[in-house]
Design goal:
The chain is of the alpha+beta class. 39% of the residues lie in helices and 28% in strands. A hairpin with a 2-residue loop joins β7 and β8. It is globular.
Length: 144
């Protein structure tokens, strides 16, 4: 399980190192794609397949399913780490997430989110101010 918040900087040639505590948990090839709220998602192949299974549980006739596939799968790229645990951040995903210099890696269980540092700071402030309301809404969700 991916846990924790880690700061890093985008280096030369758009290279960025995945924090070792997160990197040590990878199982196989890596996939990077668009995430929600303007972040990126980083998963290994096993977790990627689990995510696809969740998406594919719903009917293809649903516009929401098709749009989710377009968004998540259509933006996905295979990522290779070098010997120092770095990868090249593709320009399209760099622009999508508005990543310029400081980056936050956020382990959230089954995947890693990669955030523009300022954007994450604003999101965390929002979460901190609304955590009680979020917990209440979560308690109302019914499991399928």
């Amino acid at each position: 399980m991916f846990l924790g918040e880690y700061k890093n900087n985008l280096g030369d040639k758009n290279r960025i190192a995945v924090p070792k505590k997160l990197r040590d948990q990878f199982n196989g090839a890596l996939i990077l794609t668009r995430g929600y709220e303007g972040c990126l998602l980083l998963v290994d192949y096993k977790r990627w397949n689990f995510l696809l299974e969740q998406i594919n549980r719903k009917a293809l006739l649903s516009l929401s399913v098709r749009d989710t596939k377009r968004y998540i799968i259509g933006g996905a790229l295979n990522i290779d780490l070098d010997s120092q645990g770095r990868f090249v951040l593709p320009e399209s995903l760099k622009m999508f997430a508005n990543i310029e210099n400081e980056v936050i890696f956020l382990g959230v269980g089954e995947w890693i989110e990669i955030w523009n540092s300022e954007k994450w700071s604003n999101k965390l402030k929002y979460l901190s101010e609304n955590v009680s309301d979020l917990a209440e809404k979560l308690s109302e969700i019914k499991n399928d």
